[in-house]
Amino acid sequence: MKIAIVSGKGEGPTKLNAFDNALSNAGIGDVNLIKVSSMLEGNAEIVLLPDLKPGTMIHCVLSTITSNKKGESIHATVGVAVGERLGCVVEKTGVNKDSEVLKKEVKDMVEYMMNGRGVKIDKLIVEEINHTVESIGSVVSSIIYLS
Q1: Most buried residue, 10, 45, 51, 99, by CB count within 10 Å?
Q2: Annotated catalytic residue 73
Q3: CB neighbours of 11 closer than 8 A, spacing ≥ 6?
């Protein structure tokens, strides 16, 4: 199983347009996203996002938040832990939060999930993106399931 970790941010005249711009900024704006829960096959390989055929149905774990409050700091975070038997993914958003605090919360959550399953973590990655809203802003951080 291969996965990619992507993040993006955008502004737009509406919440939908801001979200669409954030998806495009992350490289996933031209595909159909199907949200899934948080499990990966063992030894999942983390790769760079390849070119995706427009209109393709893509499974993902998606963290996203959109705001129209000027000056607000919005955050989207994902974490991935991979072990030999399986892997886990978590997502979290925040408003006016410290990035390092959010990343630690995500790290703690994904470690808890793996420990609860008795799986040793071989690789752990946390990605966070934030944006200060100018008019209407959106951020997305996602784990894209490629195979």
Answers
A1: 10
A2: no
A3: 18, 21, 133, 134, 135, 136, 137, 138
